[in-house]
Amino acid sequence: MSDMLTIQGLWAGVPGKDILKGIDLEVRAGEVHAVMGPNGSGKSTLAQVLAGHPAFTVTRGAITYLGRDLLAMPPEERAREGLFLAFQYPVELPGVANAQFLKAAVNEIRAHRGLEELDAMEFLDLLKDKLALVDMDFGFMSRPVNEGFSGGEKKRNEILQMALLEPRLAILDETDSGLDIDALKVVAGGINQLRRPDNAIVLVTHYQRMLNYVTPDRVHVLAGGRIVRSGERDLAQTLEARGYDWLEADGAAPAEVSE
Amino acid sequence: MAREQGTSRTAQRVEELAQRAYPYGFVTAVESESMPPGLNEDIIRAISAKKREPQFMLDWRLRAYRHWITLERAAAEPRWANITYPPIDYQQIVYYSAPKRKAAASLDEVDPEILRTFERLGIPLEEQKRLTGVAVDAVFDSVSVGTTFKEKLAELGIIFCSFSEAVQEHPALVERYLGSVVPHTDNFFAALNSAVFSDGSFCYVPKGVRCPMELSTYFRINTAGAGQFERTLIVADEGSTVSYLEGCTAPMRDENQLHAAVVELIALEGAQIKYSTIQNWYAGDREGKGGIFNFVTKRGKCLGARSRISWTQVETGSAITWKYPSVILQGDDSVGEFYSVALTANHQQADTGTKMLHIGKRTRSTIVSKGISAGHGNNTYRGLVKVLPRATGARNYTQCDSMLLGSRCGAHTFPYIEVANSSSVVEHEASTRKISEDQLFYCRQRGLSGENAISMMVNGFCKEIFKNLPMEFAVEATRLLNVSLEGSVG
Fold first, then answer.
1. Which ipTM was obtained for this model?
2. With the C-alpha atoms ordered A94, A98, A99, A103, is the resulting torsion angle positive or negative?
3. pLDDT-above-70 percentage for chain A
4. Chain A contact for B82, CB < 8 A?
5. Which chain B residue's Cα is nearest to A70?
6. What are the boundaries of each domain within chain B?
7. pTM of the full predicted structure?
8. Average pLDDT rounded to a whole number, residues B59-76
């Protein structure tokens, strides 16, 4: 599968306000893309639109995912087809135990792939493996999803879910924000272990420090709802050194077209 | 090319809660014998005669009727509940209806149609298919059609039978305890029930006996236009323990049917009674047409010291629910508990809660109420915690949680607290929550359907109540909630 994700001329926003104003992006299997940009540039909106959040409306453009029309798929179908979003602000689900939630999610996706459901014991074995990957204590599994978790624990829980669900396309929305350096290393280690030739990762981030641990194949800069620059790893370092201001100064310049 | 991302919002999704599948709405074709509609002394005498009751029962019924008729004439039907319904014409109701072929001696003589009915409801009565570990008394319209495991229980001295049979076989026990917790003067519906009740279950557990199995009564309304007025009386003698469960369903009919039951529990010194209800009467259709009017008086009396009465209810049915399972904590150090889940979808209305009356010293009570409202449902918790002057050192903890699904439903809480001494402690906590769009999206992003996500969150909300149910019924309750939420999202 060469084309994982193709976004063409995407306009999207909330009623009365456009946020994304013509995004073009192509992500292929085996690639890691970093989407960077200042606050309010539309990074998180792009992530949410890809996952199908009902608060956003697509007004123009098309998205093809694994050869299918992504916009025609409800969120759960996107998830079952292997599209995963690690949330910037994971919500709490009071009363729903983490283990129960994860088992339900794993089995929904397995059922969709024509695999047998895992029983409690099989799931437990799988869970133990993946917990080690993100250095999480088993005690978190009996607690309600994200309830009372610290910021770092919530982010680890997201990576744990990603490890369990084995997505084809993982979109990580500012997974690095609010993490101390140790947690960042753990999370980055988790991401690197999931990097494979047959899947792809889109890292949405404000800072380039995550990219010290997860090396991207392509870096895109989003500003004002458009991709204003695309480049290699060194683009992120330039941004780190010069900030986003220099881009906005010549924001009118046409974006480099990604091949 | 404009395209809507995702199809609908949380509110619209859960609106579909209204589409509730009710698999129990069938009618059984069975020949029944009914009295003409309406109520007067002749009807009461006829009911009593049909049941070959001793004089004390007839006298008791007539006293209740004469009291009720004064209430009816004074239009004293209670109006304080947070529910609205059209006036009930008590002269249009059939007060007695029974299948013609009634079990005389054994279940073998029960009309096979009725056996099939209970089987369809998941309550097999036939010997080889009986639920292990659960003794069942099956009540069809106005009469009990059979009780399982009676002999086995009798070996331990436990009496478990239909109320009619108890009146014949154990009149002394009935006379002693009937009306001792809910007198016929208690309220309008209790008076009506006392006058016309036709059957129900009776249970007596002797001193020091732990009942080895769950006792259960399954109520089924079948006949159109008939009311159901059953009466349950459970007496746990000193140091005994019993766990009891009732379930109920009715056919889907366009007209409303009245159900006015009374349940009385008596726990003597050191006795424990656990009473669980899974109430799934027909709730009416999406527009609120039809459904059972459920006006029920349930009360337990912790008569002896260190006794304990625990109510657990899962209320998912009925068009109207008016029900306050209560505990009179008379014995010192006695304990009362009330755990409740009430779900109102479509146009269902529930005004339910409890009363904890602290009379004895160091009496303790716990109230945990979970109300779930969806569609146009209206859910009210109404509770009274009353601590009398001599109930020193009494303790109450109350927790009322509401969950709202959608934007056209309602949740209300009316807690009344009266404390008449200074050494008691009463706590009240309350919370209200909604399932947010972001929570729903989070679940769907992990591959769960919106329906599964909602049911997972609703079940999580109810978990601490379900854990109080006997194991088999906790599973049943979870399943029932899921069925009630079926078709809720697309």
1. 0.94
2. positive
3. 94
4. no
5. B5
6. 22-323, 441-490
7. 0.82
8. 93
